[in-house]
TrEMBL record:
The keyword Membrane applies. It comes from Rhodotorula taiwanensis. This is precorrin-2 dehydrogenase. Pathway: Porphyrin-containing compound metabolism; siroheme biosynthesis; sirohydrochlorin from precorrin-2: step 1/1. The chain crosses the membrane at residues 305-326. InterPro entries: Met8-like (IPR028161), Met8_C (IPR028162), NAD(P)-bd_dom_sf (IPR036291), Sirohaem_synthase_central (IPR028281), Sirohaem_synthase_N (IPR006367).
């Protein structure tokens, strides 16, 4: 019985995409590690970031730039996030800086102080901050000190709406970076844009079918799965508003239009005509793809072209249909 279910991997970490848009965050330190932390924070778009660090030569250049950037610089600076730089060493005896951020977060219409990040070379100070945060039940991360971390930072890649994190649970950050680079090479171009377009389609579908009951939610999910599995990543990235409107028309008829169903004007080559002809005789797979039976992740399950004589006949028929379709198209164009 146990073989039917996934094995437990006792990593000790719960991987989440933490939403901090309503929270304030305290960052102690301004060196290279703190600079990396600040970059990931502004990408997450919190309500406000407080940085406590002296204004001296130890401030990382990139961090100084982001903390002093013009708010209108947008993604090129601090991403539009408000950053308050408290230019002094953290007050370790009374934790006044921590209390300041905590009170401001609770009284400023936000969700309070979401987390504290410590990135200094003062081990004693870091330990004291960690102890105070845990006393106040505030999640804390002390850089490079796993016992003083309630959560870890991983190696992250971002492509638009796509975020991928590789974590070694504090055991091998360098290995995480190497693995992240390998994963990055395998991600198709336009993956982030494809995810954004799917998000647009989901939002539009919820406007067409706004039901909140379990049945309505399940129907929307199943329909989105059917549509998404028909399109390649590259095709999803090209879904414009007009194509999205035509795809949504399939909801009323419980059909899942493919890329070729909603973009006929773009199908004007011999190869594309062959694909359409092959689909017409049932030889091509979902989305007008090669007649290889694949699962939604692109893994080959069956290919008719490697089945001996059957594959030869199938290929011959497909080629004949494509040529006939092309001749017909050419003759109609000359009229």
């Amino acid at each position: 019985m146990s073989g039917e279910y996934p094995l437990v991997e006792p990593t000790g970490s719960l991987l989440l995409a933490w939403q901090v848009s309503r929270e304030s965050i305290l960052l102690v330190g301004a060196g290279p590690v703190a600079s990396s932390r600040l970059y990931h924070l502004v990408c997450a778009q919190p309500r406000k970031i407080y940085v406590v660090a002296p204004d001296d030569d130890n401030v990382d250049p990139e961090m100084r730039y982001r903390m002093t950037a013009d708010p209108d610089a947008g993604a090129g600076g601090n991403g539009g996030v408000e950053i308050e730089w408290i230019k002094r060493k953290y007050s370790e005896h009374d934790h006044a800086d921590l209390q300041l951020v905590l009170q401001d977060g609770q009284g400023g219409g936000g969700g309070g102080l979401g987390m504290v990040l410590v990135a200094t070379d003062d081990a004693t100070l870091s330990t004291r901050i960690c102890a105070e945060c845990r006393r106040l039940r505030i999640p804390v991360n002390v850089a490079d000190v796993p016992p003083e971390c309630d959560f870890y930072f991983g190696s992250v890649l971002r492509r638009g709406a796509l975020s991928v994190m590789v974590s070694t649970n504090g055991k091998g950050p360098r290995i995480a970076a190497r693995l992240r680079r390998r994963i990055e090479k395998s991600i198709p171009d336009g993956a982030g844009e494809a995810i954004a377009r799917v998000g647009d389609l989901r939002a539009a579908l919820r406007r067409v079918e706004p039901g909140k009951g379990n049945d309505a939610i399940a129907q929307r999910m199943q329909w989105m799965i059917r549509v998404s599995d028909q399109w390649s990543i590259e095709q999803l990235a090209r879904m414009d508003p007009d194509m999205r409107h035509r795809v949504l028309q399939g909801w009323a008829t419980d059909s899942a239009p493919s890329y070729y169903d909603v973009a006929p004007a773009r199908i004007n080559s011999l190869a594309a005509l062959g694909l359409r002809a092959g689909r017409a005789v049932g030889l091509l797979g979902p989305g007008g793809s090669c007649p290889v039976d694949r699962d939604p992740d692109g893994n080959v399950r069956r290919c008719p072209f490697v089945l001996g004589m059957t594959g030869f006949v199938t290929g011959l028929v497909t080629a004949s249909v494509a040529v006939a379709a092309w001749h017909r198209y050419s003759s109609m164009s000359r009229r």
